[in-house]
Design brief:
Number of helices: 32
Helix content: 40-55%
Largest sheet: 6 strands, mixed
Radius of gyration: 36 Å
Structural class: alpha/beta
């Protein structure tokens, strides 16, 4: 008899009503009616069923401790709500009778004992095994977040469901209730009725719905071990090992990145990255990342290119890019000027992968920071000189021990290698030995070269991040795509400041307040500066009456310089957070960089070369990588000569003013007058004359410059003369704590006031800037 034809013949209106009566509320994994409930319903409707099945389900097997004692399993009806109900039909024990329950009337199948036996025999011998779930061949299908890619079948829910179910079917009827009770005792999110009600399929369905696949899998394994079913627990581990490794990597990345560290960490004041993250603009055209906008000058002395909007790429689509011959990229390099948010972008990428929002087709994401490589390299042998790539991965990620999956050709995984600039050793790209397998031990220098070459970890995607002056040493033949973080657009600046505060009124005040300074608004394109704006103004608006006057510009530039120098001590010098004391090295570096900036300002240049750096007695790496105040520009196609610039042209003007102020403050020199002030150091009377004389020389240079390239220089110099800047912010960094304040500011103030009156008659276009200079010098914090 054809069972499906017979079932269709028996369907009627009464049966539909009966089905609706017993229909189980839909769940996220399936609308399944328990076997015992179905049989109780059938028993009340058919006397012949009563004769054959004298006891309600579940049927008690004879004295047997094996899982196939009942030799019965229910085929559950197809569910429109789930993909996973059908997978529960694939675990029928060998030789078990399959009873179709999609009809509410079993009488037609049990007219007499002979027919029943014949039917059972037919089902046993002729019913085919249900097919394995079919995985779509298109791995680029789009998920609910409009992200292409899908999980590996062994990491997806159907496999976890089937593995847990098949493992638990090995428990006897006496052992299963004990397991369920133990499972309930150590899981607070589930109740005893939810565990005990229904059959095994209901139990697996329910725990996956309530706990999720990761927690369900881990808790099932631990519970099996607790009830002395270690063999079954080990079997389940082996079946789901790929999913377990992904889970442990996920937990590591979430723990590392879900809280963003900003400035000095304060207890109870941490921000969740997910709540405040705004994605910066990322482009595939690398022009240096320096904003050419300027408050006073319409164009910088050296033209800077800006990428077009059609070259933008989303953060989570970096590894959807293709090479020129339409092949998927393997190695992607991402760079940007200091403060553009490369570290935060890595954290967001990792969180989105870990929480299944993007890049599901990447089975594993493994972080191997160049900072960890550098720490490893500095250790004493044999550890630093006797490790393979797999040893290195296992050293920093013990959960990846004996992970053979990385050898598979179809294993898609990502190695994130950030902070390339922290690896201070030079790499020999031409002569480094070639390694062809993942278990050959070598020096860290050799391992790095071979990872980037692609001779080890062949199936890996490689994401390298670092400052341009550092990553530019990687040969272009090993790079498939170069991307650049451009920072925030005007709209994203406002969104960033709005997201950080629950108080809408406060956020609107801060947005309006920082826009009163055009230079600060330009610089806030950098996420780091945007964070500084939010932090400073949030604190300032706690005071009553703040916000009447525009903020001063110089304190922001001073704080940027201090923070970047402290980061240099942390990242490149290995200093602890509580040991960031500046030495003469930091003072000399900033003074010499300021001298170079001053010379560039004199010749109206915004780009410097390696020769300019050496002329000032500096090392190129110290200036372009470690300082955090300058960056490398892409090499011109014509000569390939390396060129550099400050993170913004206005920062070059600030550094030039800082050099003039340091020479005046510490050595009693007025270099604008190119002569020594013959006077005792820090003498009040002489300093009064010097402050006014310094400002007078700067004003003369400003008025003599037709291009206005000394206008911002004068504003910063006047700001540095303010007691709030030179006494509160710079003291203890660039000179000793007990140094006296700069005197004679009243004379300098009168000089500026007279200059403003004169300019209103002769130089009207300079009046506003002179007023800003006076405000920078005299305005006190509100």
């Amino acid at each position: 008899m054809d069972m499906d034809t017979e079932v269709q013949r028996q369907e009627s209106g009464e049966e539909d009503e009966e089905k609706k009566k017993w229909k189980r509320p839909p769940s996220s994994y399936g609308s399944m009616k328990s076997d015992s409930d179905v049989m109780e319903d059938e028993e009340g409707n058919d006397e012949e069923v009563d004769k054959v099945f004298s006891l309600p389900f579940p049927v008690v097997p004879p004295e047997s401790t094996t899982h196939d004692g009942t030799r019965l399993q229910m085929i559950r009806s197809d569910s429109p709500e789930t993909l996973y109900t059908m997978t529960t039909q694939q675990t029928r024990p060998p030789g078990a009778v399959v009873i179709e329950t999609r009809s509410s009337d079993l009488g037609d199948y049990l007219e007499d004992d002979h027919l029943e036996e014949e039917e059972d025999e037919l089902l046993i011998t002729n019913s085919p095994e249900p097919p394995e779930p079919v995985e779509p061949e298109d791995t680029m299908q789009t998920d609910e977040n409009s992200q292409p890619g899908r999980l590996h079948p062994e990491q997806d829910l159907p496999h976890i469901f089937k593995s847990i179910q098949s493992t638990l079917t090995q428990l006897t009827e006496e052992e299963l209730p004990i397991f369920k009770v133990c499972f309930y005792k150590w899981e607070s999110k589930i109740t005893l009725p939810q565990v005990m009600d229904g059959d095994l399929l209901d139990f697996v369905d329910r725990i996956l719905e309530i706990l999720g696949q990761d927690r369900s899998l881990l808790h099932t394994i631990s519970t099996l071990e607790n009830v002395n079913k270690k063999q079954e627990a080990e079997e389940l581990k082996n079946k789901c090992n790929r999913a377990l490794i992904r889970f442990r990597l996920k937990q590591y990345l979430i723990g590392k990145h879900h809280i963003i560290r900003e400035g000095v960490v304060r207890a109870g004041k941490q921000n969740l990255l997910e709540n405040i993250y705004i994605e910066p603009q990322i482009t595939t055209c690398s022009y240096g990342g320096v904003d050419p906008s300027h408050e006073i000058r319409p164009h910088p002395p050296s033209p800077l290119q800006v990428p077009s909007a059609d070259t933008s790429v989303a953060l989570n689509n970096l590894f959807r890019l293709q090479t020129g011959d339409d092949k998927p990229v393997r190695t992607v390099v991402t760079t940007g000027i200091p403060g553009m948010g490369m570290t935060v972008s890595v954290g967001k990428f990792c969180l989105d992968w870990a929480e299944l929002r993007a890049n599901k087709d990447l089975q594993f994401v493994i972080k191997l920071s160049f900072r960890t490589f550098w720490h490893l390299r500095k250790k004493e042998p044999p550890l630093s000189g006797n490790m393979s790539v797999m040893d290195l991965i296992e050293y920093y990620h013990p959960e990846c021990k004996d992970m053979k999956y990385l050898e598979e050709e179809d294993c898609r995984f990502l190695i994130i290698m950030d902070s390339f600039d922290c690896y201070q050793a030079s790499l020999d790209w031409e002569n480094a030995p070639v390694i062809n397998d993942n278990y050959t031990k070598a020096h860290p220098d050799v391992l790095i070269v071979n990872i980037i070459r692609g001779t080890v970890l062949r199936g890996a995607r490689i994401w390298i991040l670092g400052r341009r002056a550092a990553v530019s040493q990687i040969p272009s033949q090993y790079i498939d795509a170069v991307t650049e973080i451009q920072g925030f657009s005007d709209e994203k600046k406002d969104n960033f400041l709005t997201l950080r505060f629950c108080d809408a009124e406060l956020s609107s005040k801060i947005v309006a307040h920082y826009k009163r300074l055009p230079s600060l608004s330009i610089l806030a394109r950098q996420p780091f500066v945007c964070w500084m704006v939010a932090t400073v103004f949030e604190r300032c608006y706690r005071y009553h009456g703040y916000g009447v006057h525009p903020p001063r510009l110089t304190p922001f530039y001073i704080n940027i310089m201090i923070v970047q120098t402290n980061r240099r001590l942390q990242f490149y010098c290995g200093k602890a957070d509580n040991d960031l004391k500046w030495s003469s090295d930091e003072r000399n570096l900033l003074t010499k960089m300021g001298k170079m900036a001053f010379k560039m300002l004199g010749r109206n240049a915004s780009v410097f070369s390696e020769e300019d750096v050496k002329e000032c007695g500096l090392k190129l790496t110290e200036v372009t990588v470690f300082s955090g105040l300058s960056t490398e520009l892409p090499a011109a196609a014509s000569d390939g000569k390396r060129t550099f610039c400050f993170i913004h042209f206005s920062f070059q003007e600030f550094m030039a003013a800082l050099y003039v102020f340091i020479m005046f403050r510490t050595e009693s020199k007025n270099i604008l007058d190119s002569g020594l002030l013959h006077m005792p150091k820090f003498t009040f009377k002489d300093q009064t004359k010097s402050a006014a004389g310094l400002v007078q020389c700067a004003v003369v240079r400003t008025l003599a410059s037709p291009f206005g390239h000394y206008d911002m220089f004068l504003r910063f110099l006047c700001g540095l003369l303010s007691p709030d800047c030179h006494d509160n912010l710079l003291r203890g960094y660039l000179y000793r704590h007990n140094a006296p304040k700069v005197g004679g500011l009243d004379d300098a103030k009168r000089l500026l006031e007279q200059t403003i009156l004169t300019a209103e008659e002769n130089n009207r276009d300079r009046v506003e800037n002179f007023k800003e200079c006076l405000r920078e010098m005299t305005q006190e914090d509100e």
